């Protein structure tokens, strides 16, 4: 909530609620981050693992991430995908654990 002095008439005329992005929007950002940083085949295989992981953890954790937490999650997933052994479920679990 805002302090009443800030929201009194004439200060702020309109207050809009902007929720967090849905799963499809977050996946789209993840896909763009991977496409920019990873070779095509590696990005595809990472997305094959990341998509079901995000769907499985959406209701319990990921839908509550704010913008910066979501960006950190995507950055860490891309970074883990660059490792020699690629992205794994264990790495995804560790990333989620670190951010929650």
Give a verbal description of the structure.
The protein is mostly helical and 100 residues long. It has helices spanning 4-7, 23-37, 40-57, 67-82, 89-99. It is elongated and about 60 Å long. The two termini are 24 Å apart. The model has no long low-confidence stretch (mean pLDDT 89).
Distance between the first and last residues' Cα: 24 Å
Class by alpha and beta content: mainly alpha
Helical content (DSSP H or I, runs of 4+): 55-70%
> Beta-strand percentage?
under 5%
Count of DSSP E strands?
Answer: 0
Number of helices: 5
Order of helices and strands: HHHHH
Radius of gyration: 17 Å
Q: Which stretches are low in confidence, meaning pLDDT under 50 for 5 or more residues running?
A: none
Question: Could you give a short account of the major beta sheet?
Answer: none
Mean pLDDT: 89
General form: elongated
Number of domains: 1
Task: Set out the fold topology.
Elements: H1 4-7, H2 23-37, H3 40-57, H4 67-82, H5 89-99
Helix pairs in contact: 2-3, 2-4, 3-4, 4-5
Task: Give a brief outline of the structure.
By secondary structure, the protein is mainly α. The chain contains five helices and no strands. Helix content is 64%, strand content 0%.
